[in-house]
Amino acid sequence: SSIRLRSQTQRSIGFNHLERAENEDTQRATTNSQNSAPLRLVGRCISKRMSFLTPQRRRWVILVLIFSAIVLNYFDRQIVSILKPTLKGEFHLDDRGYAWLINVFTVCYASMYPMAGWLVDRFGARHMMLIGILAWSGACLGAGLTRAFAVFASFRGLLGLAEPIAFPSQLRVVTIWFPGSLRATANSLSVAGSSIGAIIAPP
Which DSSP string do the residues of 149-197 spell out, in sequence order? Predict the structure, then answer.
């Protein structure tokens, strides 16, 4: 009888441990469900946004960004022509000195064009476009802050090295994101940014 009583006691203890473990698992599952509810809500919102921004819509958003970058590209390029009288007075330049300043940009721009296409093919349009925008924005900012002609000319040279990246990047993006039936339209819309930038640059 003592053996039977001992076995019943052990069985009762085992049942209590099992019931306690089941209760703990139930509480843990309830807590995890409550904690994951906000995550599920966030995931649902992200999926709705992603479903709204389909590849067909996303490519036009990308095209608008490229158009804006090319507008800034040509706007920055026209600044020296607009500020010609100011620059000649600030740096005491004659026509020859001003022509030399223009040639620094032109030579760097023409030299960089073939290399820009290779860089875009090698590293991708997204990375190179970002680097190009940061580089020519920094060149314009540095040129505006400097008071020495040599440093100013160096920043203009940097601008000439950075700006050619825009057009190979634009062409590659249009080729990847747009089908043949829309490729010419997308290309003409993005390249139109060069004319818009030249138009809005004069004061």
Answer: HHHHHHHHHHHHHHGGGHHHHHHHHHHHHS-HHHHHHHHHHHHHHHHHH
